[in-house]
């Protein structure tokens, strides 16, 4: 099994925490990180929990610089996800299963149920919620599925899905409506591919589903956590760490004796150990032209609207002029 994630240098502290937990519970897993930077940051070197670090520019994406210039950091990182997953299947022909996790997904148990499911299913997608909620309107914006956690089995169907998804994110992986980066496209996947909705309540627990009784930890035994009916609590997605998560925990888990509060404290402590203070200040290398000039939001938008420059112009990162109608300013 391969466990993988995409990130930038300013988030490597999370990637290291994710990888450490994955290796602890699943030492047999291969952990591969894709870095959306021009070069591999020193903090990504010699990390004992990383089996490989791949640069996004080496994924084989056609006209890579042109394809990402129109995107901000979040958009660029999520847009390369299908190409990265496809590369892993190609690079490691002996591996049958690939699990993608955002860097803020932390494993608390082995993925035994998931691996068993992958013996019978090609594509496992994780819905944001398993039960109806009183305010579902937000999911018209973010989508039905959370693509921060998904799993694929080597199959023709999985390859078809990745090709389809990748084509759409190449041009339309924007944050603004109706796309919400890579997620809203995946709402269409169950109608087009052999998709299984992964409804295990112990996976991808997060702020957006803490209101569900089936997600709540009811006991801890020897370092393992359990939900009702002896269902294992397997991984938690710490999305919204600096606002939404605390709000949802206070609202849905007011008892601070709930084990999740201690897990959150330990996670935040580990992020500090992994270098959060220093790494969070690292600028994104694709936020600048090659001459060091910052790229403005309006530069990205104008380039994204200029089909002719995208098709025939030079590398838009050369200079501000090079991103305008193919005029090379160097």
TrEMBL record:
<feature type="region of interest" description="Disordered">
    <location>
        <begin position="307"/>
        <end position="330"/>
    </location>
</feature>
<feature type="compositionally biased region" description="Basic and acidic residues">
    <location>
        <begin position="321"/>
        <end position="330"/>
    </location>
</feature>
<dbReference type="InterPro" id="IPR029044">
    <property type="entry name" value="Nucleotide-diphossugar_trans"/>
</dbReference>
<protein>
    <recommendedName>
        <fullName>Glycosyl transferase</fullName>
    </recommendedName>
</protein>
């Amino acid at each position: 099994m391969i466990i993988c994630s995409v990130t930038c240098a300013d988030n490597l502290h999370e990637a290291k925490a994710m990888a450490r937990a994955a290796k602890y519970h699943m030492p047999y897993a291969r952990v591969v990180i894709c870095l959306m930077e021009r070069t591999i940051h020193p903090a990504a070197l010699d990390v004992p929990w990383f089996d490989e670090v791949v640069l996004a520019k080496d994924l084989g994406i056609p006209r890579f610089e042109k394809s990402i210039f129109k995107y901000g950091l979040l958009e660029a990182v999520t847009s390369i996800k299908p190409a990265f997953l496809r590369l892993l299947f190609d690079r490691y022909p002996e591996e049958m299963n690939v699990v993608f996790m955002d860097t803020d997904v932390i494993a608390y148990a082995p993925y035994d149920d998931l691996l068993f499911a992958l013996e019978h299913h090609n594509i496992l997608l994780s819905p944001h919620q398993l039960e109806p909620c009183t305010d579902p309107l937000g999911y018209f914006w973010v989508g039905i599925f959370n693509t921060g956690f998904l799993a694929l089995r080597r199959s023709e169907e999985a390859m078809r899905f990745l090709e389809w998804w990748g084509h759409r994110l190449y041009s339309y992986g924007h944050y603004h409506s109706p796309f919400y980066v890579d997620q809203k496209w995946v709402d269409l996947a169950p109608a087009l591919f052999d998709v299984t909705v992964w409804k295990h309540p112990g996976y991808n627990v997060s702020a957006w589903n803490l209101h569900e009784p089936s997600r709540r930890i009811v006991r801890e035994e020897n370092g393992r956590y359990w939900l009702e009916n002896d269902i294992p609590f397997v991984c938690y997605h710490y999305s919204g760490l600096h606002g939404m998560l605390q709000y949802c925990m206070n609202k849905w888990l007011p008892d601070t004796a709930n084990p999740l509060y201690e897990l959150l404290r330990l996670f935040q402590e580990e992020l500090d150990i992994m270098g959060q203070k220093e790494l969070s200040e690292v600028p994104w290398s694709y936020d600048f032209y090659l001459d060091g000039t910052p790229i403005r939001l309006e530069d990205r938008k104008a380039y994204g609207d200029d089909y002719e420059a995208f098709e025939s112009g030079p590398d838009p990162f050369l200079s501000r002029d090079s991103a305008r109608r193919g005029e090379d300013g160097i």
